[in-house]
Amino acid sequence: MTDTLPSATSHPTTPPETAAGTGADPRFDWSVEEAEALIAQPFHDLLADAQQVHRRRFDPHVVEAAILLSIKTGACPEDCAYCPQSATWNTDLGPEPLMDTDSIVESARAAKANGATRFCMGAAWRSPTDRQVDRVADAVRAVGDLGLETCVTLGMVTTDQADTLADAGLDFYNHNLDTSPEFYGEVITTRTYQDRLDTLANLRTTPIKLCTGGIVGMGESRRDRAGLLAQLASLDPHPESVPINLLVKVPGTPLGDLDDFDGLELVRTIAAARIMMPTSVVRLSAGRNEMTDELQALCLHAGASSVFLGDKLLTTGNPGEDRDRELFEKLDTDAGCQGTSVDVK
Length: 345
Ligand code: SAM
Ligand code: DTB
Ligand code: SF4
Fold this sequence. Notes:
By secondary structure, the protein is of the alpha/beta class. 36% of the residues lie in helices and 14% in strands. The two termini are 36 Å apart. 6-(5-methyl-2-OXO-imidazolidin-4-yl)-hexanoic acid is lined by residues 68, 84, 120, 122, 153, 174, 176, 213, 243, 245, 248, 285-286, 313-316.
């Protein structure tokens, strides 16, 4: 047994030719009602449809692997109720300044050795200064030179800042809508939904691909989850990457002692995302550390085909290499293959 995850090989896919509507082209006009009805479908019908949509364009035996690094930690001026990095809450987190490029590259090299194909750098900023963006752009260039895909999440950016990152060769920018427009104000008061949409629009003036999704388990309703998916699916083109996070309940944050979220509702949300955005890579993101293997397997069966590897997300825990290797072996799945998309037959 090697000390890295199983290497990815290519598997032929067999697109189903019989399932009605499962090979459909992307739609950008999903209403909240339609999305809610989709989530509420009989469970086995929903999963069967999602799996068929997935197999139409993706290899079901391959999971994309990214590794996260918090390059600037804590002391964030925003008041996101879920986030341990907000200066508004008293969590155990010690703030740390922006890392230097050499240390970032060292960490990226280790991520590559551990099987990651994408390296995601996160900073606890509301909106970076131009000087901060220049420094991150240097790191993006250096990480890209290692042959890794690059992703950053830095908060709100202008079109000029997006251009700077694009010039550095940035592949993806992560900027989550998090929840429905209606529930947003329950979770964040220091910025608006429109602020988030504006940054996504600024990024879309460049070739940078969008990674945007949300969080479930914050006390929102099913209609709010449908509202989030309808918002994401109204982006034209759909975001290339859609992270679905299960809230990590961090003590000291306002959401730190919420009730556990129903895992099967997470599966339903992922399945609906899969169907509504058939060309996007759906990522089972935060929260895997708290999930059983069986729940993760269902999420992957519902059409998630990307995860974060490693024992840490940004500041909280993640399953780590040994547990993931075991899981993916049991699921006959290769983790770490760049580009899980296959040609539409
Ligand atoms: N400050 C930037 C921003 O908010 O866009 C980038 C970093 S922020 C930590 C990135 C994303 O992590 C958030 O948009 C949120 O969706 C997710 N996140 C933060 N805390 C989380 C938690 N406790 N559980 C699940 N997801 C979380
Ligand atoms: C995303 O949607 N999930 C990741 C990534 N994008 C940046 C972040 C999850 C953070 C979980 C809490 C933490 O570790 O601080
Ligand atoms: Fe800051 Fe991002 Fe955390 Fe919100 S989610 S408090 S913007 S680091």
